[in-house]
């Protein structure tokens, strides 16, 4: 059986065929759930078909994973790091093909698709170093001949539920750390990007097999809400990392909390860029374009609100509209394309509904605002003048829509930045040190990512990634994010073999 279109034949290089079982369970590929199609968002044509997981598949996978956890956590951390290093090498060897698949199935441009896979490779490198630095602490004890210390141990299994917009990078942010920390991983990829899930899993599986390790150390499922719900409710999974909307994230958190599990949530962003009167306008405009239209506005770190000082408002707006007119839309696999399609037909319909709501709430569309006549899910990058008090501004329309507003003072701009429920990323463009340090301090941005003179997107793996409020509070990738994937024990050791005497008690 061959692919329907010649341009899909490269998928065979990364283990993807026209028909694919969507579960990697106990070292085997199988699936007994519904048959679904993976669709190219540029033309809404089928790429391949995948058989999703059933609940029976899920249970079989978790039983095997629970057994594998006993083996994996016994392996010394540096040895686990060596396995992750090999996973990174396997991904690096297929970087071009995997990146092309991400672009094909998700719809982001090729440079972003390759960049996403590179993030997992980089996370593997980061995790290898971390595998020799998972350190505890020695704490002074107030009791004679006692020592107190902190010990970090694996949790057992980490569940990772990822979203369509970063179909493999988010796995890397979580799985690389979880594995070196001694945990097995259960991954449920996004339902609309099953081929990415399969291709990445096959590379991981080859590394485990080559090292004679149980395949169940990395268990993956293609599936929908039923599998995600099972992961959320499963007491065998102490930590669930979920990336997606605030609405679904809240449901996941409630399910995990009911069994006293832990959640790592990466949810919605409603990110703002502030341009002060002293800013480098050219730098700011280029940054806004990059942050607002990249991935067709489907990043969690996309710039959705632009706050401009009134003294330069018209200048910034005119320059921004001019560069928007130069944006090339089209097939994301073509090198000259800057903006690809939205991911699904439903996303395109949501864009249309969102534009109607914007107009109803007084928004003035300066450029864009329409869908594009084509077989795919293309929409025009859009700039809207609107009041910061409009309710639609408080929500996240997952597309290339930028709300622009003016302000008079720094304090007003900060208040506008912080006025939305979400708190992921934020940026300010200024040359004034006093403004910079107010912005990153307690009276500045309330976001998890607080930038100066760079866009809201493009976070580096060395820093902890995540946000506050309705963004969920989770942190992934760098800094001390690894601590979320382990359990901490405070240990007190009495090496003097004498206990304090209890007044008036005869132990005799």
UniProtKB/TrEMBL annotation:
Keywords annotated in UniProt: NAD, Oxidoreductase
EC numbers on record: 1.2.1.3
Catalytic residues (positions): 266
One family name in Pfam for this protein: Aldedh
Domain named Aldehyde dehydrogenase: residues: 36-489
Major enzyme class: oxidoreductase
MF GO annotations: aldehyde dehydrogenase (NAD+) activity
Recorded superkingdom: Eukaryota
InterPro entries cross-referenced by the UniProt entry: Ald_DH/histidinol_DH, Ald_DH_C, Ald_DH_CS_GLU, Ald_DH_N, Aldehyde_DH_dom, ALDH7A1-like
Subunit structure: Homotetramer.
Name of the molecule in the record: aldehyde dehydrogenase (NAD(+))
Organism: Vitis vinifera
